[in-house]
Design brief:
By secondary structure, the chain is an alpha+beta fold. It is 44% helix and 17% strand. It contains 20 helices and 18 strands. The strands form four sheets. Strands 12, 13, 14, 15, 16, 17 and 18 form a seven-stranded mixed beta sheet that branches. A hairpin with a 2-residue loop joins β8 and β9. The termini are far apart. The relative contact order is 0.06.
Length: 612
């Protein structure tokens, strides 16, 4: 059984502080429940930890609140302050303490990967950037930004677009080759060296060295024209023009062509916004924004903790990082970042000139984004408060859970739940349900099963909602009420149903139903209330439909191959791995099928016969 430290007493504290070592390391502050509330590093652990309990009148409100909750302190000794810095970043990510700078998962920031160690690499969008020998560019500020970049590259440079599996199984070039947008290494003999030259041009473009690339292309175009290779010259001309148009849309902010990131901070200890502006070869390539909604430290400490987490993964660390406040350990931070990058990295705080203007630009981005987020949050809060009144709830519906069922002509019935917190989707809370006792013709029974499974056991990972929203009218609401009552949760949260309008009855809007009420609720003139509920219902519908289609696709693959005599699990897996889909297996020739191990010509004919 796990034991938690007892509440702090002066005697306990004096004893604990006296045992802290006088070495570099990391300290972990815990509250009375044993939860880690702060992780810090120090070159002298004893001095640093004791400083929290000396002269408390000089503490900020944040530090005072943290100290008041400390019930225990753990320490981890390291051989150097640099090791302590790396360990601190790792522990903050692992435990996400309340009083530290905790970055949200950056999965929403994609990168571009080029597997340069292959003969014919292609561009891929990835969320993780492991050290696998590939080149990574990014992260990009949005999925839209990376899609636009890849669209331009795929139009301008003749790289292959298909996956490795599709390339291996292709027998003739695709449409991209016919349009001059791919060299078709899948079917033609393409010299890997020539292909790598194109990859080199793409790398220059992604590194922001577009002017250099344009000059190189112009030189090649002129050489091709002099050698009367007019078709090649025309292709190079078109590529050069496309890049020049891209260059015209970019804004140069520095003239020294140094790669740098610029950090802007806005807000207070309760809510801060950090904007990281990416400048490559003098051009602004994008801006990423990070919300720090937990109690954040003073700015110097914030900068240190943020940069440690931001660059601890395999990111494109620039040669220079501009910050609004230099942390105390700026030298150590530079040394650590330089080791991660493999060459020198500088952390600077310019106070005048061109670089200072860059800092101002990043700060303006942070201020504007903070203002927009605060305004949006205020608007969302006002909508939720109004919704509380219209639905006669005893509290604001901060957490709303919505369920929907799906099946196709009675096959593969499934259900799903989506979660909205403060008016925004919380995708980590989404859940899919494969019905254990599906009743195809009884949507009520299926809803009852899912609600029972969701609410019969409430944990910290699946907390109670403020509002349960079901897709349907009075019938679905009655089922939800009966299930909630049977679980002893009556009155714990509100229940509502959203039913689609019936144009044949002259209805112009969807209807909202509450328990023990025959008529739909009047949501008033504020159309945002209905739009919010419709958005939640539509998201549940999208999520469950996507799940149902995946289930249906898997079952169709299984049933098609299972109907073939002589095809067991191993051969089925081999066929799918080799060809990728039933459609491609059906299109394969008997000789292609019989070339696989364990499949003779007779079995190949059987496969073709059954699938066709």
């Amino acid at each position: 059984m796990t034991t938690h430290p007892a509440p702090r007493t002066p005697q306990f504290l004096d004893t604990r502080l006296s045992t802290i070592p006088e070495t570099p390391g990391v300290y972990l502050m815990k509250d009375a429940a044993g939860v880690i509330i702060y992780v810090g590093k120090a070159i002298h652990l004893k001095k640093r930890v004791n400083s929290y309990f000396q002269r408390p009148e000089g503490h900020t409100a944040r530090i005072a609140l943290m100290v008041s909750r400390i019930a225990d302190i753990d320490t981890i000794v390291t051989s150097s302050e640099k090791e302590a810095l790396i360990l601190e970043s790792s522990l903050i990510k692992q435990h996400r303490p309340r009083f530290n700078v905790v970055l949200k998962d950056d999965k929403r920031y994609p990168s571009v990967r080029i597997q340069v160690w292959t003969d014919y690499p292609r561009l891929e969008i990835v969320r993780k950037t492991p050290k696998d020998g590939s080149l990574y560019f990014g992260p990009f500020s949005s999925a839209l930004a990376i899609r636009q970049t890849l669209k331009l590259i795929n139009k301008t440079f003749p790289l292959r677009k298909c996956s490795d599996r599709a390339m291996a199984g292709r027998s003739r070039p695709c449409l991209h080759h016919q349009m001059g947008q791919c060299l078709a290494p899948c079917c033609h003999k393409v010299d890997p060296a020539d292909y790598k030259k194109v990859i080199g041009e793409v790398i220059l473009f992604l590194k922001g060295r577009t002017p250099e690339l344009v000059r190189r292309l112009r030189r090649k175009m002129q050489e091709a024209a002099e050698n009367q290779q007019f078709e090649a010259a025309a292709r190079l001309r078109d590529r050069m023009f496309a890049l020049e148009k891209t260059l015209e849309r970019q804004v140069m902010v520095t003239t020294d062509f140094t790669d740098r990131d610029v950090m802007g901070i806005s807000g207070n200890a309760d809510f801060r916004m950090i904007s990281m502006m990416t400048v490559r070869r003098g051009y602004v390539k994008g801006v990423q924004h990070f919300e720090l909604t937990r109690a954040a430290p003073v700015e110097g400490e914030l900068v240190s903790q943020f940069l440690g987490q931001y660059y601890s993964e395999t990111r494109g660390i620039p040669s220079e990082i501009l910050v609004p406040v230099l942390p105390e350990n700026a030298g150590l931070l530079e040394e650590t970042l330089s080791e991660w990058k493999g060459r020198r990295v500088r952390v600077r705080r310019p106070v005048r000139g061109e670089m200072h203007q860059l800092l101002k630009m990043a700060e303006t981005n942070a201020k504007n984004t903070l203002r927009e987020r605060v305004q949006q949050a205020s608007s969302d809060a006002a909508i939720l408060e109004e919704l509380q009144g219209r639905l006669h709830m005893d509290r604001v519906p901060s957490r709303i859970e919505c369920f929907d069922n799906s099946h196709l002509t009675g096959t593969n019935p499934v259900s799903a739940m989506v979660v909205f917190v403060d008016g925004r989707p919380q995708k980590s809370g989404y859940r899919r349900y494969t019905l254990k006792t599906p009743t195809i013709a009884d949507d009520y029974a299926n809803m009852a099963e899912v609600l029972t499974r969701r609410y019969k056991k409430i944990t910290t990972d699946a907390p109670m909602p403020d509002l349960l929203l079901v897709d349907g009218g009075k019938g679905q609401v009655s089922i939800a009420v009966s299930i909630v009552e049977s679980l002893g949760l009556s009155g714990v949260f509100a229940i509502a149903g959203i039913a689609k309008k019936d144009p044949e009855k002259g209805e112009t809007e969807d209807k909202i139903y509450l328990p023990n009420r025959s008529n739909p609720v009047n949501l008033g003139r504020d159309g945002r209330l209905l739009l919010l509920l419709q958005r939640i219902r539509d998201e549940a519908h999208r999520f469950v439909i996507t799940f149902q289609r995946k289930r249906r696709s898997r079952s169709m693959v299984t049933s098609a191959l299972d109907a073939i005599p002589g095809i067991g699990p191993k051969r089925k897996a081999m066929l799918l791995k080799e060809f990728g889909s039933i459609k491609k297996i059906r299109a394969a020739t008997e000789s292609e099928l019989s070339a696989l191990p364990g499949i003779n010509s007779s079995l190949a004919r059987t496969i073709k016969s059954v699938l066709n």
